[in-house]
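Batch job 17 of 40 flagged for manual review because the log was empty.
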Amino acid sequence: MPRRRPFPPAPVAGRTPLASAAAVLALLLAVLAPGLGVAGPASAASAASAAQTTQATQATQATQAAQAAPATQATPSAPAAPARESSSPLRLAIDELTPSVPRADEQVTVTGTVTNTTEETWTTVNVHAFHSVAPIVDSATLASAASAPETDDLGPRVVDPGTFQTIPSLGPGESAAFTAFIPAGRLAGGDGVYWAGVHALGQTDSDARDLYGRARTFLPVLSGERRQLDAALVLPLRAPVRYTPGGRVAGPARWAKLLGPGGRLRNLLEAGAAAGDRPVTWLLDPAVPHAAMKLAAGNPRASLAPLPGAEEPADEEGDDGDGQGSEDPTDPGQPLPSPTQPTDVPSVPEEEGEPEEVDPEQAAAAAAAEGWLALFRAEMAAHPVLSLPYGDVDASALQRHDPDLLVMARAHATSLLVTLGIDATPVLASPDGFLSPDVVSASDPGTVVLLSDRALQDPLGGTPSTGRVLDRTFATTSSGVAAGGPGPEPAAGAVAVRQRVVSEAALRLLAGDDSPLVIAPPPSWDPATGSAVLYTQFDEGLLRLRPLSALVGDDVLTEPQQAGDGVTGEGGLPAEALVYGEPQVSAELPGVSVAAAAQRLDAARLLDGVLTRRSGLVAQLVEAVLPSTSYFGRRAGGQSATWRKRNVRGTRWLEERLGAISVETPLRATLSSDHGTLGVTLVNDLDVSVTVRIAASSQGGVLIEEQEPLTLRPRSRRLLRMSATATRQGTDELTLRVTDVDGNPLGASATYPVRTSQVSGTVWVIMGIGAVLLFGTIGVRFVRGNRRTRLEQAEAEARAAEEPGESDQSETEAATR
């Protein structure tokens, strides 16, 4: 097999060949002594002493160099990322460090486990304790040291006989316990924070003996008189809350794990219960227990069904009534929707008459949620509660892009907690500890602002733990504690977090800084093991645990503050004290994500506005939309696009239901005069009654009289005759749109051609003149004809009178014959 490379020694300036030889000799004797059964000869002790002296010099130089570094380099700009689990062949884990804050004359015991992560057997595995020689004496240097590479040489290894553990053999995947010691008097560099940890040396058939495993942490030493430092422990009940497009809580299997035994949210509540009389403070996103309530109630989907007690419409057909439905939820004058009670929200089955099948994942989530809610109610009554806006929304982003959503999140949180009977103080707190000046100044006067100590800079120097900024009460959490311990072990491990807490506290006491320490553990901190380890520090006297309200002042949390009441001077710190630059702005939830959430809410209000009887649709979807604008959807987590797509799909779900209210028209229509009626059919394919209007538009050739609101029963069709007026002759395109009572389009529309046969007034005048001319001509001709006839008759009679003889002669001749 290829040979593994052991941890390389860290290059240290000033290391001489003689010192290197001494160190090698000490290492060889330390390795061979246990194998040969030697208890610790004087020669080995002498060589070990020489090696320790050399390593002590190197560690002192390294520590002094770190402390001499400029403050701008030592101050972190962001919380350290949790260290990954070590990939060393021999993985070490520190389970306990006793005492956690020793005096210089006390022995320190380190216990834990070593695990073989390879496929080979390791032999003669020695686990030695190590420690630095010079202590760290300020928080900035401690923060810089926490990110030191795993392979850095931090101090001498303890090789005294009886101080280390030898494990003869360790097979593939096997683990073994170890105990190592740092003898009393070794931490003699003065009070401060030392590096402490363990090294594992071993060998295999293919790997030479060397250093193949490390674990390390911080160890504060306080030998003088100890004072108590006030501290507050803030336990966060935060989690991503996702919903399906139809309004159900997404991922019931995930929630079953979170809320069930061993789940993180369950462990947090159990840690609160284990605190007993210790005054821990809860930081609560009300959307988390609300999601649990919905899961316990069967996880209903968003429903259009009327709420219990909603009044029937006065006239379902809409012939005599005024057509008004429920109050318009889009009207700014109307109150914000109240949180839904899942047990009161009626559900509409997918198919009538067919009961829904019980989902095993949903059943498991419901059972876990019921047990969790019982513990939740007890805990919220036992300890102080700080309430985040509903959904743990990205407050700075919403204040920038859509302040109305932030107002809604605050109001919804307050309403829900009142319903649950939980007395809570409103708070603004982001996971990274930064908040924009705009959102702080726009918050209610009674809101507490929870910041990271990196997010606030007092112009007079230092970072106060509590006070007033922009006339709002603030408290700063320790960024060092939030970053956790150094690698290679997980930064949020139980011992790692505890040692970081006591280290930060010790450095404050050494500096004469009595400002309280506000502890917000890292997000990945496991309260199942971490809380019990952390609570010991509050019982042993170094830290005095108090509720956060006691640190910022109980009156601050119960009475609105006026300008000039600040602890840090008149009006408190100015806006310039808040650190919020381009990196923080760039990290905010993108504006397109906020817009997608607002668009979904607009569609929900529009659909709810056409329902004849009041429903809980808007409130249900507010509870689905607000969590989609949370800090969990920020760019840094790579989730912004995923959360935005959920809102886009949710908007499409609403638009499909709006499209179920449609209008049907003929292929074409004709108006044979300037006035007439056109017939269309309104269709409601929803399972609830709706009240809508028809809005008509054309190119100007046809005018439709404004239509009154019309109420349609569930799954019904209704013929509507519209009064139409033609303004010109020809064919025009008539477009009909379905709208709510205020004229807002729902989405459905239809366009068809209308032919108008109307003739204009000019044509009628021309036709009238023509008729007059026609009948006038006829009359003239008739008169002239009569006159001619009479004239001819008169002429005939005149001729007859002029020839009488001819007539008599004829008569005489006739008689003679």
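Reviewer: the log was empty due to a logging misconfiguration, but the result itself is present. The mean pLDDT is 80. Unflagging and moving on to job 18.
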